[in-house]
Amino acid sequence: MAAFPEVSKIQYEGPKSRNPLAFRWYNPDEVVEGKTMRDHLRFSVVYWHTFRGTGSDPFGAGTMQRPWDDQSNSVENAQRRVRAAFEFMEKLQAPFYAFHDRDVAPEGQTLAESNRNFDEVVKVLKEEQQRTGIKLLWGTANLFSNPRYMHGAATTCNADVFAYAAAQVKKCLEVTKELGGENYVFWGGREGYQNLFNTDMKRELDHLGRFFHLAVDYAKEIGFHGTFLIEPKPKEPTKHQYDSDAAACINFLRAYGLTERFKLNIETNHATLAGHTMMHELDYAGMQGMLGSIDANTGDLLLGWDTDQFPTNLYLTAEVMLILLKYGGLAPGGVNFDAKVRRESFEPIDLFHAHIGGMDAFARGLKIAAEIRAGGELAAFVKQRYASWDAGIGAEIEAGKADFRKLESYILAKGEAAPNHSGRQEMLENLINYYI
Fold this sequence. Notes:
Elements: E1 31-32, E2 35-36, H1 37-41, E3 43-46, H2 47-52, H3 75-92, E4 96-100, H4 101-104, H5 111-132, E5 135-140, H6 159-178, E6 183-186, E7 192-193, H7 201-222, E8 227-230, E9 240-241, H8 246-255, E10 262-267, H9 268-273, H10 278-287, E11 291-295, H11 314-326, E12 335-337, H12 349-375, H13 377-385, H14 392-398, H15 404-414, H16 425-435
Parallel strand pairs: 3-4, 3-12, 4-5, 5-6, 6-8, 8-10, 10-11, 11-12
Antiparallel strand pairs: 1-2, 7-9
Helix pairs in contact: 3-5, 5-6, 6-7, 10-11, 11-12
């Protein structure tokens, strides 16, 4: 029985279309800068918000209408949910999806029972992947919801909990490999602290580094060659999370010798919670060679928490795509819609409206970014702004051929530094407006 019988496959109809169930900008086969939109964007639907979100909040119960889901914790219901999910993704033309282990299969009374449940649901996931051609972008283990993880998972003060988390990740890595997952994500929601009076920070970070090395070792043992991704977030649910932003994550990976297998999965709403723009986080990760994938969403800056809204702001998507094009794209990562419909958007059809809007916004952002790059004005301005480093004393500094004595002699002979030139911020903002 179809979960979305009133919806046909979403088609591209062009910018003038008024059909709310059609793409206006996302044309999967359109070529931009030598690649199709499909290959540039690698859209992914998340299992947790889209198929497990209830619409509940601290002030009220769930509101979502999901006729295919009887709300039970049975394996049969989980398998039925898989078929609804793949019907949705197939009609949306989304090539990828992502999940936590506990999203797709119910947790049992024991780890052994949880693993059996997982295996039963994986059978249907595999069937649906083969039927539709939809692939797993990444898997991950939920190491934050169960009360056992109240003090963290890899950073817990309880060694038994560390062992449980390791066993859970072991199973999820096996499943991710079995399903052909291209990446594996760690989000450390509980890997941090609420109070430093009761925290041995060095010990916790050492344990986190050890945990990741154990994951890398097991991935090699079973032949999982996908990229490991860390997802930065500064706070919420903990006061401080150790993976607070891109810079902190990269420093951690270098300190613990993990850069060979790890990159970052950057999320817009997490970037803003850290006091950064998404463009900043992407550029920082990209210049360090650590840009792996993105979670595409946005937050409400008036609210100040992780609202996980769908991205519709063209300035945001154009900025994101400028950076992704700059660093050669995301593959094997993707544009993963870690976003949820609002509590008031409770009907199943709203899932389509939300994803169509996000996909169109990124497709248009891609085209805007490509036009900016083709125009060349922005790149030419930046190149000219740093021209003093391309020859003379600037080139010598960059080449390591100038020490303090030489630089002192240079300035004493010249008398004064060359005059500065305007940064032309307002002109460049006007330029971006021209393209948008």
